[in-house]
Amino acid sequence: MFLLHYCTLAIEGTVLAKDVQPKKQVEHALLYARVSTQMQVNDGMSMEAQEKTLRNAAEFAGFTSVEVLLEEGRSGKSITGRPVLRDALNRLDNGTAQALIVTRIDRLARSTTDFLSIVDRAAKNNWRLVLLDLNLDTSTYQGRFVTTIMSALAEMERGIIAERQKDVHKHRRDSGKVWGVDLGPKKRIPQAVLDRIYAEKAAGKSMNGIARILNAEGISAAYGGKWSASSIKYVLDKQSGQEIQD
């Protein structure tokens, strides 16, 4: 929600039209309303209140055909749990409707990823997205400018997270730590398997050879995976006879 909040502040600082601008060539608009709790109804976010606001906005914008879509008792956390919205987006994508109007951004999506995916779908499939609380209309130059900035900020945020994860992984590798053994959830390797590895090594087997023997006999490595030369090496580097603990 941080990114959505940041972008809301940015939008409030831009010069946007106070009302939805008429777009007469749009023939059919979907007016989407959602409530998830009784508390929202008490706070003035009832279906009736949303529908009235949406109809007024659609009438001002000059839509000749509108359809109210109501989704009750559904959280805005994810699109996957909202069949009405998913169906609306599909209809918009295939051209049976040309616009989606929502009273507030949190009625549409609480997830930055979900919101930006909807923005991308609107741009790709050439339909109009209108958010009344932000005075955001993707059919206008200002609306397209704002959504471009939002998409760029989201891409930057994803890049920062990815770089941070790379740094963590590099530090772990440089320090010789193994995920699932030194860090994270650990899997117990039975002492009998450890003893078998030590014995095979003492008999002159290579690490690749030991891994092939264990895999051929159906003896699983940690987490049920296959043995490899690197996993055998890690075991051999441990003190002889020491059991890897949870």
Structure description:
The protein is an alpha/beta fold and 246 residues long. The protein folds into two domains: 2-154, Resolvase, N-terminal catalytic domain (Rossmann fold); 191-237. The chain has helices spanning 2-12, 38-45, 47-61, 83-93, 105-108, 112-125, 141-174, 191-202, 207-216, 229-237, and strands spanning 28-35, 65-72, 99-102, 128-131, 136-137. It is elongated. Mean pLDDT is 80; it is low at 14-18.
Features:
single chain, 246 residues, alpha/beta, Rossmann fold, 2 domains, 5-stranded mixed sheet, 10 helices, 5 strands, elongated
Question: Briefly, what is this?
Answer:
This protein is of the alpha/beta class.
CATH superfamily of the largest domain: Resolvase, N-terminal catalytic domain
Secondary-structure element series: HEHHEHEHHEEHHHH
**How would you write the strand order of the largest sheet?**
2-1-3-4-5
Please provide the count of β strands: 5
Radius of gyration, whole Å:
28 Å
The portion of residues assigned to helices is 40-55%
Q: How many strands, which pairing sense, and closed or not: the largest β-sheet?
A: 5 strands, mixed
What is the general shape? Answer: elongated
Low-confidence stretches: 14-18
Which structural class best describes the helix and strand composition? alpha/beta
CATH topology of the largest domain: Rossmann fold
Number of helices: 10
CATH architecture label name of the largest domain: 3-Layer(aba) Sandwich
Strand content: 5-15%
Tally of structural domains? 2
Beginning-to-end CA distance, first to last residue:
36 Å
Averaged pLDDT: 80
Tell me, what is the CATH class of the largest domain? Alpha Beta
